[in-house]
Amino acid sequence: MSALVLWFLLGQTMAAMPEFIEGTELRLVSPDLMTVYSSGRVSEGRLMIDLPLDAGTEIRLLVFPPNVTDGQAAALLSGAQAVFARVAEERADILLTFPEEAETVSLREWLRTERGIVLVLVTRR
């Protein structure tokens, strides 16, 4: 499959992702959604998140838009919209996985190219 076709298909999948406007919160949670490992908010074109996890750790991402209502938050916490992911090697990125796609997607690259946001992962080890 050509790279152009792959990016088109991934773009279709990622189109359902939120806009990540100022104040949007991204939470890194355990696969069962019970433990919040870290979170960060979009501020001034950056999303800064502490990353206390090892490379290869499987996680889920929950995205909360600013001014989310209780009903919207409950729907997000149900896991229906949780994005499957894992911490990349060297802990320099988060790789997104979508059931209908064979390839993983770099959260860093996607935020930069699709939303104009710089992802800053703080890894204090």
Please give the structural blueprint:
Elements: H1 3-14, E1 25-29, E2 36-43, E3 46-50, E4 58-64, H2 70-77, E5 83-87, E6 94-97, E7 105-106, H3 107-115, E8 118-122
Parallel strand pairs: 3-8
Antiparallel strand pairs: 1-2, 1-4, 2-3, 4-5, 5-6, 6-7
Short recap of the structure:
The protein is an alpha+beta fold. 23% of the residues lie in helices and 33% in strands.
What does this structure look like?
The protein has one domain (3-122). The model is unreliable at 1-13 (pLDDT under 50). It has helices at residues 3-14, 70-77, 107-115, and strands spanning 25-29, 36-43, 46-50, 58-64, 83-87, 94-97, 105-106, 118-122. The chain has 125 residues and is α+β, with helices and mostly antiparallel strands. Helices cover 23% and strands 33% of the residues. It has an eight-stranded mixed beta sheet with strand order 7-6-5-4-1-2-3-8. 18% of the residues are buried. The chain is globular and about 35 Å long.
Number of E-type strands:
8
Radius of gyration: 14 Å
Number of domains: 1
| Strand composition percent | 25-35%
* SSE pattern: HEEEEHEEEHE
Q: From the helix content, strand content and strand pairing, which structural class follows?
A: alpha+beta
Number of helices: 3
Strand line-up of the largest beta sheet:
7-6-5-4-1-2-3-8
Shape: globular
What is the mean pLDDT? 83
Largest sheet: 8 strands, mixed
Quaternary assembly: single chain
How far apart lie the N and C ends? 39 Å
Uncertain runs are: 1-13
* Helix amount: 10-25%
